[in-house]
Write a structure and sequence with these properties.
The protein is mainly beta. The protein contains three helices and 18 strands. Strand 14 and strand 15 form a beta hairpin.
Length: 312
């Protein structure tokens, strides 16, 4: 019966265009779908960025932070599915540590088996437990790693688990310019019954360049700002058995009156069939940070990502 359900699920996903177009509906694809309002709004060009909980999805070395915080984000999927990501970040001297948890739940499907069995089940449910760490080796060089335990459940019947790991590094060439590189999802693939799919290994390389504006209101002298900067990012990623993909990001941060910090973001995903422009913003107070990100889609429902974090 388990093998029959696996085969049935495979046929359903192959014959359903919306499902096969959605990252995260087959195999361990959740490991290839980074989440977060900031990184998504910046076109997922995030490999060389420092100090954000979302870094564990792109490059664990970028996790390096001098603050303790909790973080949560949610993104809609197709046909009622959804993704979530939550983490806790803390620092011990030069070591930053983050346990985190990612989930994906697809929409429901109806099973009608030849023996008369009928049921409405979740097509796929994925869970990833991660333990990440970044260590500041010097003022300009940081290395990091993540250990991942992934569990995939198909049609609420067949399940499989696998352990993978990530490694990464970020090097500051100057105070304004950094480069980063990571290799994600190393290790074994997901195995159902006697068939094993290779792990979705990804190589990432990226750059980030930060420009502080002086005076802060250089772009609009009528705005009351005490600080502002612009960050430009460019990434390349290569997933196993796929062509190189490129993405670029933009972020403008502005320190406004009443201790409000506002960020505007945009990005572009190159050579994607269905994806293109991304954009978003966030508003940060003394402790809280609320963010929204949007990823456009040419044929399917656009992605909307909400995040909230609190600095302890």
């Amino acid at each position: 019966m388990k093998l029959l359900l696996n085969i049935l699920f495979f046929l359903i996903t192959v014959q359903s265009t919306p499902l096969i177009a959605e990252t995260g509906t087959s195999g361990a694809a959740i490991l290839t779908r980074p989440l977060g309002s900031r990184s998504s709004a910046m076109g997922r060009a995030f490999t060389a960025i420092y100090g954000d909980p979302e870094n564990v999805m792109y490059n664990p070395a970028g996790l390096n932070s001098n603050s303790k915080s909790i973080y949560f984000s949610y993104m809609n999927g197709l046909a009622g599915g959804g993704y979530s990501f939550s983490s806790f970040v803390f620092q011990i001297n030069k070591l930053t540590v983050s346990p985190s948890f990612t989930t994906f739940n697809s929409s429901k499907i109806d099973l009608n088996l030849s023996d008369g069995t009928t049921a409405s089940v979740t097509a796929e449910s994925d869970k990833v437990f991660m333990l990440s760490a970044a260590y500041e080796i010097s003022n300009s060089f940081t290395a990091g790693t993540s250990l991942k335990l992934t569990r995939i459940e198909l049609a609420e019947t067949a399940s499989a688990s696998v352990i993978n790991y990530d490694i990464g590094a970020i090097y500051k060439l100057t105070e304004s310019f950094s480069v980063g590189s990571s290799i994600l999802n190393n290790g074994k693939g997901i195995k159902f019954e006697d068939v094993e799919d290779k792990s979705p290994k990804i190589f990432r390389f990226g750059t980030a360049y930060k420009i502080e504006l002086n005076p802060p209101n250089l772009l609009d002298r009528s705005v009351d700002l005490t600080y502002s900067d612009i960050t430009l990012t460019l990434d390349m990623e290569k997933q196993r058995d796929e062509k190189n993909k490129y993405q670029a990001g933009f972020e403008m941060n502005m320190q406004m009156p009443y201790d409000v910090f506002m960020s505007l973001r945009a990005g572009w995903l190159f050579n994607r069939e269905d994806e293109g422009i991304t954009f978003g913003f966030s508003v940060k107070g003394t402790k809280w940070n609320f963010g929204l990100g949007f990823e456009s889609s040419k044929e399917f429902e656009s992605k909307r990502i909400f995040s909230i974090s609190y600095q302890l």
